[in-house]
Amino acid sequence: MTMEHVLHMAKGGGETSYAKNSWLQRRALLETTPLLDKAVREVYMALSHPTMTVCDLGCSSSENTLFFVSKVIEAICCHRRELGANTKVELQFFLSDLPVNDFNHLFLSLRGFKESIAVGHEGETLPPFYITGLPGSCYRRLFPDKSVHLFHSSYSLHWRSQFLDGLEGNPSEGNIYIAKNTPPYVVKLYQELFQKDFLLFLKLRYEELVLGGQMLLIFLGRKNEDAYSGELNLVYGLLAKSIQFLVEEGLVGKEKLDSFNLPIYGPSVDEVETVLKQSELFDINKIELFEHNWDPYDYSKSDHVDDPLQSGMNVAKCLRAVMEPLFGSHFGESVLDALFEKYAHNVAEHLEREKTKYSIIVLSLKKG
Q: Which of 9, 203, 212, 298 could form an SS bridge with 293, CB 3.0 to 4.6 Å?
């Protein structure tokens, strides 16, 4: 089982699809719109020819992808209005993800998107824009040298390039991510793979960016330095507990659970900065961490969850939309309903005791 064959969000437009359950990711895009607007304006002002090339890495297949496209167009229109300028520019968008991504669903929505953006900017001349799909891994070269002006990636770079190698026996028995009983050498394997992947990603994008090109990267991380107490440890610990329940019920073999490790790592801000400094490639415009409630529809600042049962279901739907293809491939599609029903229950129990949040790292970089 390789990442490029199984890693994609739940396809289509059904009730468990990513298209219907990606509001958590939309909130991150809304939160980082000012940074995107700034990057677009600076890149636009520095253009040496009338074509601006923009790539969304890990685009997936929900409305969020075209929401990003609309924000880039909006930023340029707004900047031109403020300057009273009508400098000609054409936009070439590349929407990139692994080959198993649901590109069909994405491109079937293009006609409606183009109509809606025209209505939204009625009376205004939009810059011509062209949208192309680009299958491929962000851990490989995707473009010729110095050909891209802006890279964007949201909720993608916490995914690793491969499943964890170097495990002997069942060192993380009963777990699918870093847990309290995970041996230190397994944690080190996660950390080393993150460092290797992120450094490679930076080198590849540096080669592909024009001088002065920029990147806006948004991904899951953790608040503190202790890899054993990251926010994702709890999210996936409750998921492992749900799989353990299926093992006890005889629905999943124990060997299936013990042989599975999520190809994800949520780094700290310091870990990200360490790799950036090691690369010596980019100027850091901004690096920060913000938080969102587990339940994407819970905007409250309180420490109390009003409806834990509903929040549990909301969290489970969002995670299922992301994990369903990966888990279906390993554990079997027949157990998915039972798995995420149990997960919703476990999350609800947790949220009754403690309100918990995701930690999200946002990174704005410039090629100097």
A: 298
How does DSSP classify residue 250? Answer: T
Residue 8 confidence (pLDDT): 56
- Separation between Cα atoms, residue 295 and residue 299, nearest integer Å: 8
What pLDDT, on a 0 to 100 scale, did the predictor assign at position 20?
67
Of 199, 216, 211, 212, the C-alpha closest to 279 is 199
Produce one character per residue of 168-199: b if its CB has 16 or more CB atoms within 10 Å, e if not.
Answer: eeebbeebbbbbeebeeebbebbeebbbebbe
pLDDT-derived band at 3, boundaries 50, 70, 90: low
Which amino acid, 278?
Q
**Facing residues of 364 across strands?**
216, 286
Give the contacts of 48 (CB within 8 A, at least 6 positions apart): none
How is residue 48 written in tokens?
């040496």
pLDDT digits (tens, 9 = 90+) for 8-29: 555 555 666 666 666 677 778 8
pLDDT computed for residue 199 by the predictor: 96
Q: For residues 105 and 102, what is the distance between their CA atoms, to the nearest angstrom? A: 6
Measured CA distances, 17 to 253, 318, 322, 325 (Å): 26, 9, 8, 10
Short-list 180, 170, 322, 341, CA closest to 257: 170
- The angle that helices 336-353 and 308-331 make with each other, rounded to 10 degrees, is 140
**Dist CA 224 CA 295 (whole Å):** 22
pLDDT score, position 22:
67
State which amino acid sits at residue 247: V
Residue 33 to residue 79: CA distance in whole angstroms: 14
Question: What kind and span of H or E run contains 291?
Answer: strand 283-293
> What pLDDT was estimated at residue 5?
62
